[in-house]
UniProtKB/TrEMBL annotation:
<dbReference type="InterPro" id="IPR020635">
    <property type="entry name" value="Tyr_kinase_cat_dom"/>
</dbReference>
<feature type="domain" description="Protein kinase">
    <location>
        <begin position="28"/>
        <end position="264"/>
    </location>
</feature>
<feature type="binding site">
    <location>
        <position position="57"/>
    </location>
    <ligand>
        <name>ATP</name>
    </ligand>
</feature>
<keyword id="KW-0547">Nucleotide-binding</keyword>
<keyword id="KW-0723">Serine/threonine-protein kinase</keyword>
<dbReference type="GO" id="GO:0004713">
    <property type="term" value="F:protein tyrosine kinase activity"/>
</dbReference>
<keyword id="KW-0067">ATP-binding</keyword>
<dbReference type="InterPro" id="IPR017441">
    <property type="entry name" value="Protein_kinase_ATP_BS"/>
</dbReference>
<dbReference type="InterPro" id="IPR000719">
    <property type="entry name" value="Prot_kinase_dom"/>
</dbReference>
<dbReference type="InterPro" id="IPR011009">
    <property type="entry name" value="Kinase-like_dom_sf"/>
</dbReference>
<dbReference type="GO" id="GO:0005737">
    <property type="term" value="C:cytoplasm"/>
</dbReference>
<keyword id="KW-0808">Transferase</keyword>
<dbReference type="Pfam" id="PF00069">
    <property type="entry name" value="Pkinase"/>
</dbReference>
<protein>
    <recommendedName>
        <fullName>Protein kinase domain-containing protein</fullName>
    </recommendedName>
</protein>
<keyword id="KW-0418">Kinase</keyword>
<dbReference type="GO" id="GO:0004674">
    <property type="term" value="F:protein serine/threonine kinase activity"/>
</dbReference>
<dbReference type="GO" id="GO:0035556">
    <property type="term" value="P:intracellular signal transduction"/>
</dbReference>
Length: 264
């Protein structure tokens, strides 16, 4: 508890976001703060050289003082260079100023599925959910083949733009050869999602699929039930989700999951 309070004070005192209107490198004009993650602060900026909107990520000052923080920021850059996929943001630039270390990325302007469900009231059937899962699995497989694990395939990091899906935010991504100590006090679900394994990305996508399927769910009673009892989906899909969620013997590759989804 005390550790968390100290970390919060450090963020307040030393990790303050840069102000909008600031010009970096004589090129990047900061428009707004998009968010603050574990290691970085993300901004929407205007690139005066290309006249395009880009995403800037700044390594937090407190993290820049640690070896693990510097390594994680460097690793995100390395991973984006390695991925090279049209449905993943391109790495555009890397630079350092008196304000810190930065990377510049392509801005994927689109909608999260939270937007589509709660703002636009879209609901997703079993068939639509499977179609979305298959497209995501194809993207994920492309970086798994390069021995890269995303480890953060949550709702905010999956974007729909022009009817295509995109995966963003590789801030927690790792190479399979990387080693990182897990916090034994973390929630079991977080430990499964953050594990440096192929199964961790499939686990996260299993939860994402449940989020989509619940968009069409209408409670019939106040009694709390399991997702298997509440959702009106096929036995085949339930079996696949149980494996993705590691409730049964899990899939060990994207191809295993995709093969079974294609059979429904």
């Amino acid at each position: 508890m005390i550790t968390e309070i100290i970390k919060g004070l450090q963020r307040t005192l030393f990790d303050r976001p840069l102000k909008s209107g600031l010009l970096l490198q004589g090129r990047y004009y900061i428009n707004e703060v998009l968010g603050m993650g574990s290691y970085g602060i993300t901004y929407l900026a205007h690139d005066r050289l290309t006249e395009t909107t880009v995403v800037l990520k700044q390594l937090r000052t407190t993290k820049a003082k640690t070896e693990s923080g510097l390594r994680s920021f460097q690793r995100e850059s390395e991973i984006l260079k390695a991925v090279q996929h049209p449905q993943v943001p391109k790495l555009l630039d890397e630079f350092q100023t008196d304000k810190g270390l930065f990377i510049t990325m392509e801005w994927i302007q689109g909608d999260t599925f939270e937007d589509l469900i709660f703002r636009d009231h879209h609901t997703y059937s079993e068939k639509e959910t499977i179609t979305i899962l298959l497209e995501l699995l194809n993207i994920v497989e492309s970086f798994h083949k390069k021995r890269i694990i995303h480890r953060d395939l949550r709702i905010p990091n999956i974007i729909q733009r022009n009817e295509k899906l995109h995966i963003i935010d590789f801030g927690l991504a790792c190479f399979l050869s990387d080693q990182e100590a897990a916090d034994p006090y973390d929630h079991p679900e977080k430990l499964r999602m953050r594990a440096i394994t192929v199964e961790s990305d499939l686990f996260a996508l299993g939860h994402f699929a449940l989020f989509l399927l619940y968009s069409a769910y209408e409670p019939q009673s106040k009694k709390e039930k399991s997702w298997e009892d509440e959702l009106n989906i096929s036995i085949s899909l339930k079996a696949i989700l149980r494996k993705m969620l590691q409730l049964d013997d899990p899939f060990h590759s994207v191809s295993e999951a995709r093969s079974q989804l294609n059979q429904i």
